[in-house]
Design a protein that fits this description.
This protein is mostly beta strands. It contains one helix and 28 strands. The radius of gyration is 26 Å and the shape is globular.
């Protein structure tokens, strides 16, 4: 057999493989759904078992129907009403109904419920529920009919500031919150909480209803903004902190650190 004949047979085999490979590829993905989110603000991913769907494609997007007219910055589970969601952001209505920056989404049946008159003069970036209470943090200056500097609590009937008079709230944006026991950890761009120097991260003590600073080796807080907080899912109660800082307490920690029993 000549070299030319061998080469011809070789390339013919490649063409056959590519041809049938492309056909097989088309057939393989023929039943794959086209997945897309909605353009109206909020959607949910419905889990559904479908044998014809490929792995890692376990459901489909569906519109929540009643959608906010502004950005949603936070979605958290509602511990008070399991199965419901707390959404918050910059919106002031959902569908045709007024909702000031925060609402509860009931999924079954689909509904939206207000928390009083919501919050005003700013946006909500973070929410978290604890027992029968809901905490919201952001840039706002009013919650319900109360003055509230960037953070407030809903107790089921009304909004309340965290602290009193000049020792209320924080002096700049709240971006993240997390719970460990009776301590609500709050992170953001602020430097003072309740008049106390805290440097971007603070504790609201749920038992004593007062602000506390995190001081490690004589250094207060971290030296840059805090944008994310996460508590470990085991029993160690380690708090992971992310943001724009370079030091946490006296410890060099660029952008991310963890707090364990009060030490960075």
């Amino acid at each position: 057999m000549s070299i030319r004949t061998s080469a011809s047979a070789f390339f013919s085999a490649i063409i056959l493989v590519l041809t049938y490979g492309v056909q097989a590829q088309n057939f393989e993905h023929k039943e794959q759904p086209i997945l897309a989110g909605t353009s109206t603000g909020t959607a949910q991913w419905e889990l559904e078992e479908r044998k014809e769907q490929p792995l890692a494609s376990w459901g489909f997007w569906s519109d929540l129907n009643k959608t906010p007219n502004g950005t949603v910055f936070s979605i958290t589970p509602d511990n008070i009403n399991p199965g419901d969601l707390i959404i918050a952001g910059s919106f002031d209505s959902i569908g045709d109904t007024a909702f000031e920056r925060i609402a509860e989404y009931g999924r079954y049946p689909l509904s939206a419920t207000a928390f009083g008159t919501g919050v005003q003069n700013g946006v909500v970036y973070s929410t978290i529920s604890y027992r029968t209470e809901l905490f919201a943090g952001g840039t706002f200056t009013m919650a319900g009919n109360s003055t509230a500097r960037c953070i407030a609590m809903w107790d089921g009937t009304g909004w309340h500031p965290l602290g009193t008079d000049s020792n209320e709230g924080v002096d700049s944006t709240v971006l993240a919150m997390a719970l460990i026991g009776d301590s609500l950890y709050v992170g953001g761009n602020f430097t003072h909480a309740g008049g106390l120097l805290v440097n971007h991260i603070a504790i609201w003590n749920l038992d004593s209803n007062r602000w506390e600073a995190i001081v490690d080796n004589g250094v207060v807080g971290v030296d840059g903004g805090v944008a994310a907080l996460l508590v470990s899912d085991d029993e160690s109660n380690i708090l992971y902190v992310g943001g724009g800082f370079l030091h946490a307490g006296s410890t060099t920690a660029s952008k991310i650190a963890y707090l364990d029993s009060g030490h960075w």
